[in-house]
Design a protein that fits this description.
Blueprint: H1 2-21, H2 25-38, H3 47-70, H4 81-96, H5 102-116, H6 121-141
Helix pairs in contact: 1-2, 1-3, 1-4, 3-4, 4-5, 4-6, 5-6
Length: 142
C-alpha cells in the first residue's frame, strides 16, 4: 500500500503546485512526467497518480462547488492552499473512485494534512470529508 500512498502524495503535490502557479493540473503533471524521465532523482508519476489527477481535473468545478457549500466558515479562497488541495484530491477519490474504501480515502487525506499542514488541519479535513461520505450517494447523482 505504500505505492498508493506515494501516488496520492504526488497527486496532492501536483494539485498544490498547479494551484500555486495558476496552471492547469494537466500542465503541471506533464512537467512532472518530463522531469521524471530526464532526472533519476525525481519520483516517477505512476498510473494511479495520473488517474487521480486526471479524475480530479474532470470533476474540478463540481468538487470546488461541494467544498464551497460544505466547508462551514471557510470560503474556497480563504482556505489554506494545502488543505484546499488535500480536500480536492480526497473528495474526488471518496466520491468518484469505487475501488478505494471510504475510510482509506479519508485516512490518507488526514495523514497528508498531518504531514503538510497545520495542527488544526487534520480535524478540518476529517470533518469535511466525513460530511461528503455521508452525502456520497446524493453527491454522485447530482
Amino acid at each position: 500500500m505504500a505505492a498508493r500512498n506515494n501516488a496520492r502524495k504526488r497527486a496532492f503535490q501536483i494539485l498544490f503546485e498547479a494551484d500555486q502557479r495558476g496552471e492547469s493540473v494537466g500542465t503541471v503533471m506533464a512537467d512532472w512526467i518530463r522531469h521524471a524521465r530526464t532526472d533519476d532523482r525525481q519520483p516517477p508519476v505512476t498510473e494511479f497518480t495520473m488517474e487521480l489527477v486526471e479524475g480530479y481535473a474532470g470533476q474540478a468545478t463540481r468538487i470546488d462547488d461541494l467544498i464551497s457549500t460544505y466547508a462551514v466558515g471557510w470560503t474556497l479562497d480563504r482556505m489554506p492552499v494545502v488543505d484546499r488541495n488535500i480536500v480536492r484530491l480526497a473528495a474526488y477519490e471518496l466520491v468518484w473512485v469505487d475501488g478505494t474504501p471510504d475510510a482509506v480515502a479519508i485516512d490518507e487525506a488526514v495523514q497528508l494534512a498531518k504531514e503538510f499542514s497545520t495542527d488544526e488541519s487534520p480535524s478540518f479535513v476529517n470533518g469535511l470529508l466525513g460530511r461528503f461520505k455521508d452525502l456520497k450517494p446524493s453527491l454522485r447523482r447530482s
